[in-house]
Design brief:
Blueprint lengths: L2 H25 L8 E3 L6 E3 H17 L4 E4 L3 E2 L6 E9 L1 H5 L6 E8 L2 E9 L4 E6 L3 E4 L2 E2 L12 E6 L7 H13 L2 E3 L4 H10 L4 E5 L6 H11 L2 E4 L13 E5 L4 H13 L2
Parallel strand pairs: 3-5, 11-12, 11-13
Antiparallel strand pairs: 1-2, 3-4, 5-6, 6-7, 7-8, 8-9, 9-10, 13-15, 14-15
Length: 270
């Protein structure tokens, strides 16, 4: 892997995320309902803001890396053959944006041979810029952050992320209800990247992800890893690469046995 490519990619991603984020901040609460469209049968929305932010980001990536593979939330797959893959979600939290709730972010990830090597998440309404580089640490507005000593987890705050297609799957419903009744709080933000940044900062105790894969997934995962967190599948196997149907537990390494047990009990109905 060429480190020079990663360094330049980080510069481009930061610039693109900030510019796109500034546009989103200006458009927030100013678009009329005619600009909102249902994207699919699962009820997700797409707005004019999604497309305009995406144009900014893709333009900068293509200018600097014209031969790289890109998959973006609205524009789709450019189908170029490359070891380098960009994953772009120009507006993670579109539903929040549409209803006037200021919880949304821009997410840009660079993968090399299916492993995340660089990620940028920008939260426009708070001006928080999150960055991570593989083996280079996790930063929020330039400050390096590491998970410290774990807190007591008997009253854990857990983030729940679930794919749209499995919302009513009986096993998912059972696990979701178990987490809701067995923890201090189960959080669903409709903006998964922000839950990943909260975990990386130590503001959440864990994330349980049930079959939710997309352009917004791998940026936050890299940040949690670089902050010192563990990410495994439901059986406790370390998660690497990419998966079309991920089932994941992310938390402080010392808490992994507890959350594995919590998930197991929820799945079997204990």
């Amino acid at each position: 892997m060429e480190q020079a490519v990663v360094r330049e990619a980080r510069r481009v991603a930061v610039e693109a995320a900030k510019e796109a984020g500034e546009l989103l901040r200006k458009l927030f609460d100013k678009l009329d309902t005619g600009t909102y469209k249902q994207k699919d049968e699962h009820g997700d929305l797409v707005t004019e803001a999604d497309h305009r932010a995406e144009e900014i980001i893709l333009g900068k990536i293509k200018h600097s890396f014209p031969d790289h593979h890109i998959i973006s939330e609205e524009a789709g797959d450019n189908r170029l053959s490359s070891d380098w893959l960009w994953l772009v979600d120009p507006l993670d939290g579109t539903n929040n944006f549409a209803v006037g709730m200021p919880l949304f972010a821009v997410s840009i990830t660079l993968m090399y041979q299916r492993e995340a090597v660089m990620a940028v998440i920008y939260e426009p309404m708070t001006n928080r810029l999150y960055e991570a580089v593989a083996n280079g640490g996790f930063r929020c507005n330039g400050k390096i952050i590491r998970l410290g000593e774990p807190r007591a987890y008997n009253k854990a705050t857990v983030g729940w992320i679930q794919g749209h297609k499995v919302q009513q799957e009986p096993q998912a419903v059972r696990l979701r209800q178990h987490l809701d009744t067995s923890t201090k709080r189960m959080m669903r933000l409709w903006a998964p990247t922000l839950q990943w940044t909260m975990l990386a900062k130590g503001d959440l105790d864990a994330i349980i992800l049930y079959n939710s894969e997309g352009e917004d997934l791998y940026s936050g995962m890299l940040m949690v890893r670089e902050a010192g967190g563990s990410i495994t599948d439901f059986e406790g196997r370390p998660f690497t690469g990419m998966s079309s149907e991920p089932y994941l537990i992310a938390c402080h390494p010392q808490h992994l046995p507890f959350f594995r047990g919590l998930v197991h009990n929820g799945l079997v109905g204990k």
